[in-house]
């Protein structure tokens, strides 16, 4: 499990530790080496100083013994005894030099001393090479005090540091010819013993002289040159390493310190890493939670949007290998209203479980709203089956759900869209699936609806209608018209039906056939219903004795406070409920008979009359009429329009009227547009009639005017010549 932040923290801290450790080690090492270098430089200076001192010393000795009147005189005299006593023994006894010789002006060895006893004597040492070097040194030397000069010569006894000076009569120094003077040669061997003594004074153990030779590296050691400038050897030694000594002392505490530092730093690294990881984990969990619906555990809308916007899905869309199915539970609000939100939640999660089981394994299933689900499918195989999947989703709900001991039958609107590869974006695919679902909802389809371009105009229009509906009442765009319902026998107005009208600023007059389903979908129907009922209550005060039919949508009836609201409004306007007939269509009765029965019984008990609207168009069976306490049934106008031209319609109308008779339910025929239709219905003994032929829907003021005009009898069309009507006569007359 790795995370960029944890990785970065680890890297930074480890890099920090490494840099610190390397810096400390490099710093200490640098200091040690620097100290070594300084010590080496110092030693070199000291050695060179020591070598210079040897030269000074040997030159000083040569000066002392040569700038000496008596010594010159003794030499001139050939006084070997004096020379032996004052020069030779002094040197040899005190061992201040290893070698001493006096040579004549013509370079003959006159006197010679050496020490130790076994060292090569002056004769052997005094080689032509040495003589030549002495000559070279002395040649330019003036006759004066401190004129001694020194150099090196390689002898069989080792390297000899020697000084030469003329033995001069001090009193006649300025006048004497130098070439007539004898020469004193004094020197000592740079033996290993002497050098190591010298070295020890500088704290060097192994100072030695190394002959100049290509096999030895020259290094940075001081060299010695002979009188011709030729390198004859070099002083070498093992340079001291005080830095390393210090290092040896500090290495343990520093290593200990570094170790402690590393441990603390590692601990910090691990801790920071753990923290970063746990933070990353909780971040991931939060992101995951934000994508998940807590009720069903499915992906939520956010997650689904993310998925549909993903490059993979986008590519599938563009490649014509993606499909989306939308499912929306019908009337979920009323489910919630009747069993509470908890029950609703339970239903949703049961439904989600059931749908999950029928979906292909690679389908992405999401809950994208309270009662909305979406499925995303990709790949060729999935596409082939999308119609089947969508249909199976519809039918998965055929079996009722049991929630809190109650059985619930829910239906759903399902729509789907398939990308056809024609450059479709995921957004467009979603919109199309939504549109298809919308169509399924509005057309109350009992199967899944695939998207097709024909849906575009209608659905879009409905969407815009829904938006416009929101403020329609406040904007005073809604009004109510009333259409008289007339008793067939004497054509007296007995009732009016309230019909809502919407004059939209945006769309002009919109038919209730178009906007009522939209209002049902958006929930605006509740306010519209109350508005109509209230207006009807106000208006009917002027029409005593007249009944009032009010259309009620199934959605309204599912509102738990519906009955109470109606009762309250009626009371407020002082209108008794039994002046009303509530017109219902079968939709609700079919979908949820148990709830419907309870609700209708309640309305009935409050005094409201009930009318079954659009009878014959749906699935209505005689059973419904028996189950529910209807007072009226309204034969749908589609039958009336076929009256006279379609024998089946005639027979159907006849049987509906007979049914009403038998069940003691008053029958109303609506949509009467011609005198013939009216006459036929009267012949068929239809009790009440309604239609444009008799009266069109009109504003309240016109109803009032009409009533005033008609007077007491309220008989409409008094001029109409009514054919004979005999109550009780068989309706199966030969006129058809
Ligand atoms: P409905 O309840 O069946 O209403 C009768 C419809 O038939 C009315 O249409 C009326 O104007 C029309 N109509 C009446 N006589 C004739 C005729 O002779 N010929 C023809 N062709 N039509 C006739 P409208 O007003 O357009 O209402 C349509 C539907 O809208 C109504 O059908 C009703 O279901 C619904 N509706 C109207 N107002 C309301 C309302 O306030 N609330 C509810 N929930 N629904 C309403
Ligand atoms: Mg009606
Ligand atoms: Mg109707």
Name the descriptors.
binds magnesium ion; alpha/beta; 24 strands; binds ligand C2E; Alpha-Beta Plaits; 736 residues; 49% helix; disordered C terminus; five-stranded antiparallel β-sheet; eight-stranded mixed β-barrel; 4 domains
Description:
By secondary structure, the protein is α/β, with parallel strands linked by helices. The protein folds into 4 domains: 2-35 and 266-287; 39-236, LuxQ periplasmic domain, N-terminal subdomain (Beta-Lactamase, 2-Layer Sandwich); 301-451, 2-Layer Sandwich (Alpha-Beta Plaits); 479-710, Alpha-Beta Barrel (TIM Barrel), CATH 3.20.20.450. It is 49% helix and 18% strand. It contains 24 helices and 24 strands. The protein has an 8-stranded mixed beta barrel with strand order 16-17-19-20-21-22-23-24. Strand 12 and strand 13 (406-408) form a beta hairpin. Helix 12 (426-442) packs across helix 13 (455-469) and helix 15 (525-540) runs parallel beside helix 17 (562-572). It is rod-shaped. 35% of the residues are buried. The model is unreliable at 724-736 (pLDDT under 50). The protein binds ligand C2E and magnesium ion (2 copies). Ligand C2E is lined by residues 483, 498-500, 511-513, 516, 529, 532, 551-553, 583, 613-614, 637, 670-673, 690-692, 697.
Task: Set out the fold topology.
Blueprint: H1 4-66, H2 69-77, H3 80-94, E1 99-103, E2 109-114, H4 122-125, H5 128-139, E3 149-155, E4 158-166, E5 183-189, H6 192-201, E6 208-211, E7 223-225, E8 231-236, H7 242-291, H8 301-308, H9 311-318, E9 322-329, H10 332-358, E10 364-367, E11 372-378, H11 380-395, E12 401-403, E13 406-408, E14 412-418, H12 426-442, E15 449-450, H13 455-469, E16 478-487, E17 493-504, E18 508-510, H14 512-522, H15 525-540, E19 547-552, H16 554-558, H17 562-572, E20 580-584, H18 587-591, H19 593-606, E21 609-615, H20 622-627, E22 632-635, H21 637-641, H22 647-663, E23 666-670, H23 675-683, E24 688-690, H24 700-710
Parallel strand pairs: 14-15, 17-19, 19-20, 20-21, 21-22, 22-23, 23-24
Antiparallel strand pairs: 1-2, 1-5, 3-4, 4-5, 6-8, 7-8, 9-11, 9-14, 10-11, 12-13, 16-17, 16-24, 17-18
The chain binds ligand C2E and magnesium ion (MG) (2 copies).
């Amino acid at each position: 499990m790795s995370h960029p932040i944890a990785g970065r923290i680890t890297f930074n801290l480890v890099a920090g530790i490494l840099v610190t450790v390397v810096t400390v080690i490099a710093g200490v090492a640098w200091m040690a080496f620097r100290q070594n270098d300084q010590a080496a430089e110092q030693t070199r200076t000291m050695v060179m100083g020591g070598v210079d001192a040897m030269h000074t010393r040997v030159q000083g000795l040569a000066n002392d013994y040569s700038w000496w009147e008596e010594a010159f005189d003794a030499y001139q005299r050939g006084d070997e005894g004096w020379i032996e006593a004052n020069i030779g023994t002094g040197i040899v006894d005190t061992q201040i030099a290893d070698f001493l010789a006096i040579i004549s002006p013509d370079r003959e060895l006159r006197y010679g001393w050496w020490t130790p006893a076994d060292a090569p004597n002056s004769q052997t040492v005094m080689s032509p090479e040495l003589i030549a070097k002495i000559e070279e040194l002395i040649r330019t030397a003036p006759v004066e005090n401190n004129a001694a000069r020194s150099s090196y010569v390689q002898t069989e006894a080792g390297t000899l540091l020697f000084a030469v000076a003329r033995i001069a009569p001090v009193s006649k120094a300025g006048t004497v010819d130098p070439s007539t003077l004898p020469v004193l040669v004094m020197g000592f061997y740079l033996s290993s013993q002497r050098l190591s003594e010298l070295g020890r004074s500088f704290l060097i153990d192994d100072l030695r002289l190394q002959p100049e030779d290509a096999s030895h590296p020259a290094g940075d050691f001081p060299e010695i040159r002979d009188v011709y400038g030729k390198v004859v050897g070099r002083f070498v030694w093992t340079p001291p390493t005080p830095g390393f000594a210090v290092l040896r002392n500090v290495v343990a505490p520093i290593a200990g310190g570094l170790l402690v530092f590393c441990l603390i730093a590692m601990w910090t690294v691990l801790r920071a890493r753990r923290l970063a990881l746990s933070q990353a984990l909780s971040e991931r969990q939060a992101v995951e939670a934000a994508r998940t619906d807590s009720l069903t555990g499915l992906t939520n809308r956010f997650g689904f949007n993310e998925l549909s916007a993903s490059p993979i899905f986008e590519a599938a869309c563009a490649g014509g290998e993606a499909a989306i199915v939308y499912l929306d539970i019908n009337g979920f609000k009323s489910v919630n209203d009747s069993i509470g939100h908890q029950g609703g939640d339970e239903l949703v999660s049961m439904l989600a479980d059931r749908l999950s089981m029928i979906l292909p394994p690679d389908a992405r299933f999401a809950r994208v709203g309270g009662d909305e689900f979406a499925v995303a499918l990709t790949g060729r195989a999935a596409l082939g089956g999308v119609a089947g999947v969508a249909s199976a989703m519809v039918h998965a709900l055929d079996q009722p759900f049991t929630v809190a001991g109650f059985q619930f039958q829910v239906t759903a609107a399902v729509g789907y869209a398939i990308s056809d590869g024609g450059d479709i974006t995921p957004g467009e695919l979603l919109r199309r699936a939504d549109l298809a679902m919308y169509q399924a909802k509005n057309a109350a389809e009992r199967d899944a609806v695939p998207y097709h371009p024909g849906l575009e105009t209608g659905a879009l229009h409905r969407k815009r209608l829904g938006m416009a509906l929101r403020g329609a009442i406040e904007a005073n765009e809604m009004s109510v018209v009333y259409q008289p319902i007339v008793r067939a026998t004497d054509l007296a107005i007995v009732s009016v039906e309230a019909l809502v009208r919407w004059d939209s600023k945006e769309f002009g007059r919109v038919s209730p056939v178009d906007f009522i389903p939209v209002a049902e979908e958006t929930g605006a129907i509740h306010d519209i219903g109350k508005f109509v009922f209230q207006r009807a209550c106000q208006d009917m005060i002027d029409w005593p004795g007249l009944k009032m039919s009010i259309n009620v949508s199934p959605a309204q009836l599912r509102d738990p406070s519906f009955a109470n609201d109606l009762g309250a409004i009626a009371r407020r306007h002082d209108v008794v409920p039994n002046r009303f007939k509530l017109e219902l269509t079968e939709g609700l009765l079919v979908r949820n008979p148990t709830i419907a029965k309870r609700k209708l019984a309640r309305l009935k008990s409050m005094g409201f009359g009930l009318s079954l609207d659009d009878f014959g168009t749906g699935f209505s069976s005689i059973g419904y009429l028996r189950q529910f306490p209807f007072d009226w049934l309204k034969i749908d106008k589609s039958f009336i329009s076929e009256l006279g031209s379609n024998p089946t319609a005639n027979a159907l109308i006849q049987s509906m009227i007979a049914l009403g008779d038998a069940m003691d339910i008053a029958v109303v025929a609506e949509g009467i547009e011609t005198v013939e239709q009216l006459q036929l219905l009267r012949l068929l003994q239809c009790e009440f009639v309604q239609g444009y032929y008799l009266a069109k829907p009109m504003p309240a003021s016109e109803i009032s005017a009409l009533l005033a005009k008609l007077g007491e009898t309220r008989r409409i069309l008094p001029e109409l010549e009514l054919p004979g009507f005999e109550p009780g006569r068989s309706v199966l007359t030969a006129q058809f």
